[in-house]
Structures are given as C-alpha cells and as structure tokens.
Amino acid sequence: MKFQYLGTAAAEGIPALFCDCEICREAARRGGKELRMRSGALVNENLLIDLSPDLFAARLQFNLDLSKVRNAIITHAHSDHFDREMMGFFTPTCAHIAKTGDLFHLWGSAYTASAWKEYTSAIQMKEPVLEQYVVFHELKPFETVEIEGVRVTALKARHSCPESLIYVLEQGDARLFYGNDTGPLADETWEWLAQNKEKPFTTVSLDSTMGHPENHYYGHMSLKENIETKERMLAESMADANTRFICHHFSHNALCLHKETVDFMKPHGFDVAYDGLSFNA
Ligand SMILES: [Zn+2]
Ligand SMILES: [Zn+2]
Ligand SMILES: [Zn+2]
C-alpha cells in the first residue's frame, strides 16, 4: 500500500499565515522540510485521507494526478481536515472527468455527515448540483468497510470536534494506523486494538501537535505521549520491532522545528513526517 503525506501541520500551518513567532520565522528562513501545509494524505493514488484546504497546493508541489480519486475518508469536521467547498471542484464545469452518474464518495462520522449536509443545504443553487456528484457514507466507530481495495476501520479519537475518527488501513501485508487528530488513545480504541492484533502494524502515524514532551492537552498528543503510545503498542503486541513509528501533525505553538524534532525522536525510534514523505506502508 502506497502512502504519502500531503501536509503535516495543524490548522494554522507552519509558518502560520499571520504569525511572527520565532518558530515561524526560523521555519521560513530554513525552508524545505520545515514548511508544513495542513494535514492530509494520499493512499495508492486513489484514496484521500481528509480534504485539506491545501490539497490544491499539494497537487502542484508534488505533481499529483488526482483524476482517479473518487473516495476520501474524513477524520473530522474541523475545516483544516474537511474543506467542504473543495467538493464543488468535482462537478463537470470544474473537473472534466465528472459525468452524470460518476460519484465522489465521502466517508466519515454522522457528525461529519451533518456538517456536509448543513453545507450543501446552505448553498443556494437553481438545482442541487453537489448532491448529484457527491455521496456521503456514514461510518460508525469500529466499523470496517472496503474502499478501493483497502480495508478501512474507523476508531474513536479523543478530540475537540464531535465524533472524530482515526483509521486503520489494511491492504496485502500493509497495516497502517493513522492517528490524528487525537489525544492519548481512548480506552475503547485500546480495547479494539487489543482484540484485533493478529498482525502487528507495519506503520503507526501519531498526532504530535503538542510537541514539547511536557505539554499536555486531551485532544492532541505530545512527543512524550507518542513515546508512551509506542511503548504500550509494543508491550501489547500491537506493534513489533519492524513497525515504523512516525510523528505527524505539528504546530508552531509546540516549539518543534523539523530538525530538532528528528534529533529528539530518533533515539526513541520515531521518524518525523514532512510534506511529501512517501513510502510503502
Ligand atoms: Zn488537525
Ligand atoms: Zn508562529
Ligand atoms: Zn482537529
């Protein structure tokens, strides 16, 4: 299963749009991996995780062909993960691939579905254009569906947006845990992981928004909490020595520049995500 991070920042990006803090200034000065767009990922060239407002920028930067994408799994309804207006570009005037009967499928929680419905009912068109091309499928926590040949299981996140989901993606030998936005994992999620560990994860991507080891917030993880999550996954045989652990979803408020985060997390066996990082999961 191919996997690519299209963006690796929290909502404000790095450097943040109107910010003048030391981290943003230093990130802008260094460039490269220090520059982070809002979070999202592409699986196998045809399955998106989240609709980031920076998807168009990612398409340009990584020369992506998104014309085959007909499915997006949405973690939650925060605007940096679910830019609802983006779906307007999957209509025949904006995408010449879209024809009547050709549907784009969104997948997410009932709350995310209600945010989608609220948006489509608020836009006043002569006829309901979006509904002809985009269909929303509600996922319940711990439900598994198959999308584009990938087994997708929704797990419960702990986050400030109602009914936020994180995901397990499985295909062939690959078993990936995509864990943001979430604080230290919910008990029910640990229970599901304990009951479904026939195969250790090949890749685990964790929320690192709180950065600095001592920071704590219920709806995001710190680097210390990333390390604790890894230790518990290893202790409970959900992961093994071959599992690749990756820190992901960063904020300028956490004082984490890429290079320093790599130096800090390397001894703990973590890679640090950057925009465009692509690998076989
Ligand atoms: Zn986020
Ligand atoms: Zn800043
Ligand atoms: Zn969020």
- Taking the alpha carbons of the first and last residues, their distance comes to 6 Å
Task: Determine the oligomeric state from the structure.
Answer: single chain
Helical proportion? 10-25%
Mean pLDDT: 95
Instruction: Characterize the overall form.
Output: globular
| Helix segment tally | 7
Percent strand equals 25-35%
- Total count of domains: 1
- Main sheet summary: 7 strands, mixed
CATH topology: Metallo-beta-lactamase, Chain A
CATH superfamily: Ribonuclease Z/Hydroxyacylglutathione hydrolase-like
Question: What ligands are attached or bound here?
Answer: zinc ion
CATH architectural type? 4-Layer Sandwich
The succession of helices and strands, N to C, reads EHEEHEEHHEEEEEHEHEHEE
Structural class: alpha/beta
Radius of gyration: 18 Å
Spans of at least 5 consecutive residues whose pLDDT stays below 50 are none
Please give the order of strands in the largest beta sheet: 6-5-4-3-2-1-14
Number of DSSP strands? 14
